[in-house]
Specification:
89 residues, single chain, mainly alpha, 91% helix
């Protein structure tokens, strides 16, 4: 039974990682990265590493996507401000 759970978890991680690579929009990519973090946390739990799973939940599925979203937001704001200055200019 545990071998089947490991295989299923590995397949979910592979699917989430492939989706993260294929998505082009950075905001959506951050959300898919969060899903990847959740699937990795499930894999670590199945592999009986709960401490690593908790760390993965905190960093991989919460903090990293949040930082990516905040960075994308800041970059988009700066590009909008630059476009508005060019239009005035």
């Amino acid at each position: 039974m545990s071998d089947a759970l490991i295989v299923i978890s590995l397949l979910l991680v592979a699917a989430a990682a492939t989706a993260a690579v294929l998505v082009r929009d950075p905001a959506r990519q951050a959300l898919v990265l969060s899903v990847l973090g959740l699937t990795l946390a499930v894999l670590f739990t199945v592999l009986q590493a709960p401490d690593v799973a908790l760390s993965q939940l905190a960093v991989g599925s919460a903090l990293t996507p949040l930082l990516v979203l905040l960075s994308v937001r800041k970059i988009r704001r700066k590009s909008r401000a630059g476009q508005q200055e060019e239009e005035r200019g």
